[in-house]
UniProtKB/TrEMBL annotation:
It is a multi-pass membrane protein. This is Alkane 1-monooxygenase. GO terms for cellular component: plasma membrane. One of its GO terms (biological process) is lipid metabolic process. The chain crosses the membrane at residues 22-42, 48-68, 88-112, 118-136. The keyword DNA repair does not apply.
């Protein structure tokens, strides 16, 4: 991404660049948990890898968060509109949906065709549940967009977790009564 040029409040020209731009792709790791699990189980034969989802959600992501530390460098207000229109960030969000549902259908196939132990079945179920649960964050972001297709995608993401009412509850309840519009 090229540097964005803007004017400081005191009138000086300035530039800003998102130095963490490609780190946004890390947000797709949870939606890939099932694929990672299948690959690891297939490669090693170790059924413990069916539990990859919780490992990612409750170990990997917190460790990355601690290592990254607090980031006090938000983009200047003057470049927010340009960032909102940058398709890269939108596509990072959109990519979660096909990964989430492909993982879900792959899991259904595995449950139907593979001979997994009860513990492995539970691990796979929890892994796909983590993917759907973290998808609620994706749905939250999509639900706030102006485009009707993005709001529709939000509802599709929420369907797998049976939390479709979040869209209505959050946007028509929470934001109207206790938060920003």
């Amino acid at each position: 991404m090229a540097a964005l040029v803007y004017t400081e409040p005191d009138g000086r020209p300035a530039t800003w660049r998102d130095r963490k731009r490609y780190l946004w792709l890390l947000a797709l790791i949870p939606s890939s948990a099932t694929f990672i699990a299948v690959g690891l189980v297939t490669a090693t034969g170790w059924n413990v890898f069916w539990w990859t989802g919780p490992l990612i959600a409750f170990a990997l992501i917190p460790v990355i968060d601690i290592l990254a530390g607090e980031d006090g460098k938000n983009p200047p207000d003057e470049v927010i509109d340009e960032l909102e229109n940058d398709r890269f960030y939108r596509w990072c969000t959109y990519a979660y949906l096909p990964l989430q549902y492909t993982a879900f259908f792959l899991s259904c196939y595995i449950w139907a065709r593979w001979d997994l132990s009860v513990l492995s079945n539970i691990g796979l179920a929890v892994t796909i549940g983590v993917t759907a649960g973290i998808g609620i964050n994706t749905a939250h972001e999509l639900g706030h967009k102006k485009e009707s297709v993005e709001r529709w995608l939000s509802k599709i993401v929420l369907a797998q977790s049976a939390y479709g009412h979040f869209y209505l509850e959050h946007n028509r309840g929470h934001h109207v009564r206790v938060s920003t519009p």
